[in-house]
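Sample entry copied in:
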Amino acid sequence: MAYALEGIKVLDFAWVGVGPITTKYLADNGAEVIRIESAAKLDVLRLGPPWKDAQPGINRSQFYASYNSSKKGITLNLGHPKARELVRRMVPWADIVVESFTPKAMRGWELDYEHLRELKPDLIMLSTCLQGQTGPNALYPGFGQLMAALSGFYHISGYGPGSVCPPYGAYTDFIAPRFSASALLAALDYRRRTGKGQYIDMAQYEAALHNLMPALVDYFATGRVLGPMANASERYAPHGAYRCEDEEGNEQWLALAVANDAEWRAMLEVLGAKASDARFDTHMTRVENREALDSFVSEAVRHRQVQDLVAKLQAAGVSAYRVQNCVDLHQDENLEAFDFWHWLEHKEMGPSPYEGLQHRLSRTPGELRSAAPILGQHNEEVFRGMLGLSSEEIEQLQKENVIF
């Protein structure tokens, strides 16, 4: 096969982040994914920047587009009984169904696993919402920003007591898809061996906590509650981002992590600096005196060129790199060597940049096979081609806001 998941068919009811990113993994590796949306309640990412040419529009968001490459898109107003009947006609075609509503939605529409597996006994279904399908808070709606707060990440990502702040974006939206995609692959393998389907209840809360496990284990072992530490580390010193000489009016910063005494001595040699402060004599005392150490390093690098420092520190075995911005990333020589950036022809936005795959399979490398669909782009193909509806039937369903 050209792709690892060639022949796998997916109905994707999910929206925003976790579900669409999960199904994007499948689509980019060959699965045929049909994304079901509705103009009655738009995916909020369609309403979020960055916009093509800075002009807002429901088909002009690269934020949305980046999560939905290689998919087909149709529109169905699932609040209408006829729309749900069309879904039931599509279910036997699918190997996998993915949804990310709160638990009451699919149950209320009778599109939950118990109903769908009557139509497809070996169906695999993934439900992913903030706090899972059961428990006292299962019906709480929300986005990854709320889950990052609930699962503790806001409390550890500030600059000190009283300055709690969030990690960037809907943080847990970028954690959970790794778990859900792996679970779907395991379910496919189980079905291949046994002929049986699976229902996967993937609570984003539980998935997120795995990335906080060191702090949780430390609390159970010592009773210590991890708090915000800015860029400080308990294992590396110095550890942080230090401002270097500006270039063409733009700030330049050096990210640095020194792990032991040998790297410390190598760093001092590159900087041509002498550390006479006794607090810097050992790795342990450097960790204990982070603020003074940061001041020392900041002064030593402030008027040095960052690229020169990176080259010399790397050659000396010290972990160091320039802090890059978005422009830098699009010009990064390593990403260019990886062929990371891909330009795909979007139906409304035209040529648009997409991030490449996060993994490379040697025998069945995936690829971004198509740009994200505009709203309802494949209605004709699916409703006429797959379901066999006539033009008159499709037109009538559109008038009734079923296909909407």
